[in-house]
Amino acid sequence: SLYVSEYFSQSAQKLSFYSWYGNAKLFHFHVPEDTVLLRWLLQASRGKGPECTSMEITVHFRHGAPPVINPLGTRFPANATVRPSYNISITLGSAVQNTTFVNVTTPAAGDWFIAAHLPEAAGRIEVKGFSTPCPYMFQADMFVLRLTDMPVLEPGVPMPHTVVSPAKPLHVKVFVPKHAAGMRFQLRSCVTSGQRACAVRVLLGSITLPQSFQRTLTCTGSTNCSLALDSPPWEKWLQIMVESLGTANASVSVEMLASFTVCRPGSTSSFLNFISLNQSQAGARPGAAGSSAPGAGEAPHNTSGQRSSCLQSQPVVREDLDVVSVRYRLLNGPSVPVNSLSPTLLLLNLNTGMDSGGSLVVNLLLNKTSVSLANATVVACVSAASPVLSLNATRNCSTAFSQGYPLSLSTSSPEAMLIVLYPQTDDWFLSLQLLCPGGQGECSSAEAKVTAFAYLTPCFNDCGPYGQCSLLRRHGYLYAGCSCKAGWGGWSCTDDTKAQSVGAQNLATLLLTLSNLMFLPAIAVAVYRYYLVEASVYTYTMFFSTFYHACDQPGVAVMCIMDYDTLQYCDFLGSVVSIWVTILCMARVKKVLKYVLFVLGTLLIAMSLQLDRRGVWNMMGPCLFALVIMVTAWVHHGAKRGHCYPSSWKRWVFYLLPGITLAFIAISVYAFMETNENYYYTHSIWHVLVACSVAFLLPPRDKHKKPWAWSQKLTCRYQICQNDREELYAVT
Which spans does this entry mark as compositional bias, Polar residues (predicted)? Predict the structure, then answer.
């Protein structure tokens, strides 16, 4: 046999602490056909700085779709099917780099996904630039060993082969046709070269993670052995590996035979149904499994054909709505007939390669009036790759190499719903059959009507009122995830274990908005001291900070007077400009220079915020530059007057020192104490402290300025006039 090795690599990604699925870094690979060995090379590394500590990286694997993970232990939505992912842990201790290998023999061909993430996020809000986080990098490479001339086992044709040694197993493959109800594999005429007892092991199927349903058959002696498989995967190559369990030098000669039982589908619709579609359905490919095209004179429902066939296939149209958004429509109406003789089958096509990043939702509704037997039950099964053709209590909705998802309908429970998170790329089937407690003969003539709705959506229920559905991308692959807020958690933001109550949400909104009213004393002081430009800036900041935080709330207490991004930009701009004008006002420079610095600084601050809105130097840069100007001006004033400036000790004790203290406390709270849980009151404290510090730090008005005399500004009363004319003296 000729083996070919291939190598696939993707660029490294920087890992993040986990709070939602968007923090997990996804790697997407495609395993070619006839692969007999798959090896993952996982490389993890960290920085060398003192902030880098030992860390545990969790890596998840899955075939066919991104892995469904739950590192936080939250609840999934009701009716959602969850199977734990296969994962390993990589520890970065004293070593800066860690290399791990993961081997998978006879892997399934198609898409494979790897997701890696760090432990749960601490929830601390870090100001960008105050601290340097440690970079943790992860890279996944894939090696495959592929057999180029794998022998093909033809159905019904015996194939003799020889297993040379236990170290060199035999690989063959057989193609499973469409509508195969069962497969029987036989191993016979087993002979060893050393005339010893024959001992071989046969592995049928490929390995898929997180769950693998590879079937094993062990044959000893010269007797024939066989294995029967129900519902093998349709229209796929099935790998078969034969291993020798004998001594190292003994070869084994065997004869293999594969045979299939094919199910003949019944006709539920004529060709006229397809050509009579409306314009919106034109061009859609009917996804009916095995739907036939009888003559134009045949009735749409052939009762005799339904009774003699092993399944009734309903034609289904796949309608693509948007990215990871598909709706399935039944051509014969939303209701499908279900009987007890053969299952009713619906094909849900999810094999485009871009459908595995959403959620498949199946809704079933039983028409109570259509069931003549009160104790009858409609059993349904949703499965991938092949349908379940014999629905009963003992089969448990399983096929040859996979486990389906069972559903049940009755007159007492007429509704059922199923949510498949990240369905694997394949053809999915919905099988329905009517069961009676007294056996099949009791309800042989009964028929039930079931309304079926199936659709693919990026996020189930659009993540609810406390979540945001985000479309994520890894190279050309798109998938969706829910980002929860207001303490809600879970895959679809349905876990209310740590959720904030409506009262807590209202309190948070009131604190974050009403705390901005503490700018009113600063505005009043600025107006009283004739600092009208500064007062205008404080008013601007108070207004936009109030409505930005009213729009930024995660819960139901939200009010947005304009676009969120605009409110955020105006809030950040007003905050930095307020600090800028306050420090320049304290510098006591000439008015012309002060207003030039006001305008020029505001323009530069607006530019820097547009480049990086959350950078720490957008605030620290203007503050430091303004402080340099203020200190220079104070030194100039002090040198000119010959004493310290400001000269009044009362000014230092009762105004400057309290204002500076409040400003430093505010910066400490803003930079080091804010977390996701305490944000609403720590940030409110930031608002109060900054506003109060501004009121203390504003300098007194100029001496030549008279205080506001409102009584003299009013003209609606009699006034005593005064003649201020100067007398002119003439020189003679």
Answer: 301-313
Architecture of domain 502-697: Up-down Bundle (1.20)
Q: SS3 for 554-595, per residue?
A: CCCCCCCCCCHHHHHHHHHHHHHHHHHHHHHHHHCCCHHHHH
At 572-624, the pLDDT tens digits run 999 999 999 999 999 888 889 999 999 999 999 999 888 888 777 777 888 88
Q: Quickly count: other Cβ atoms within 10 Å of residue 318's Cβ.
A: 20
Residue 327 has which token pair? Answer: 């709706």
Burial 233-251 (b: 16+ CB within 10 A, else e): bbebebbbbbbbbbeeebb
**Rounded Cα distance, 256 and 156, in Å:** 10
Domain ranges, ordered by start, for the chain? 3-147, 159-262, 312-457, 502-697
Q: 312-457: which CATH number, 1.10.10.10, 2.60.120.680, 1.10.10.60, 3.30.460.40?
A: 2.60.120.680
H-state helical runs in 313-425: none
Gap between the Cα atoms of 535 and 529, Å rounded:
10
Residues present in the chain in total: 732
Give the end-to-end CA distance of the chain in Å, rounded to a whole number: 133
Under 8 Å between Cβ of 362 and 450: no
Half-sphere exposure of 389 (CA within 13 A, CB side): 24
